[in-house]
Amino acid sequence: MEVTDSLNFGHKDRKDIYEYIESHGTVREDEVRRALNFEPAALGAHLTILRRDGYIRKVGKHVEVAYAPEAEETVELGDLTVTIRVAQDVDLESLVDAIHEVADEGRYIEAETVADVLDHEEVVLRHNEVSSRMVFVATVDEKLAGWVHLDLPEAEKLSHTAVLTVGTRPEYRGHGIGSRLLEKGVDWAGEHGFEKLYNSVPATNEGAIEFLEGHGWETEAVREDHYKIDGDYVDEVMMAVSLR
């Protein structure tokens, strides 16, 4: 199942089961049964249908959302061997740490919000009737070096747009990892029917603005004094790129 697929369960119980699994990541079947107060036979029947319809899959005694696999990519960037792949729940702690490391520089407020949401929800990928998200990470020697996050609204009037955040840990900058991650996020969005991407940064983050402009993004709007950083009011620069 793609994170852009429409959801149609045909039964309230199956919807409840999917939503529990989707919000908790990989969980044991008996945990689902206890949490939702199902009889074993009834739960088994619903899980069978959800698996048949491609919504979930079994992993031993556990179940998880059956997100479609994405091929990972390994590239040589200077003296680094970099792997770009879909983020997994096992990446959660490292992912949150990496985003906070970039956001704590005080120049990427959108990323700070992403880190807080991930940390609170404790699930990396999401796909429900309210909102969905896709996350790719770059790793070097199995250490998480950067990420690209796509927030995908489910509201029909916004479903052609997405909000993208991207970042690289300071020690891995200067090798082109950020560019590869940005290209991955943009390509994925284009392949899945999105028409426009947004990314907002403080005006003081000149490096991020220059980076996005270098990849074809443009300033769409400026909100004056939108941020207050270290006691100073700072404009928000709303960047956008069209995929049409």
Question: What do these coordinates show?
Answer:
The protein has 244 residues and is of the alpha+beta class. Helices cover 34% and strands 34% of the residues. The protein has 7 helices and 12 strands. Strands 4, 5, 6, 7, 8, 9, 10, 11 and 12 form a 9-stranded mixed β-sheet that branches. The chain has a 3-stranded antiparallel β-sheet with strand order 1-3-2. Helix 1 (12-24) packs across helix 3 and helix 4 runs antiparallel to helix 5. The longest helix is centred in the C-terminal third of the chain and has 15 residues, at 177-191. It is globular.
Radius of gyration: 19 Å
Output the helix-strand order: HEHHEEEEHHEEEEHEHEE
Number of helices: 7
Relative helix content: 25-40%
Unreliable stretches (pLDDT < 50, length at least 5) are none
What profile does the largest beta sheet have?
9 strands, mixed
- Give the number of DSSP strands: 12
Overall pLDDT metric: 93
Class derived from helix and strand content: alpha+beta
What percentage of the residues does DSSP assign to strands (E)? 25-35%
Cα(first) to Cα(last) distance is 24 Å
What is the 3D shape?
A: globular
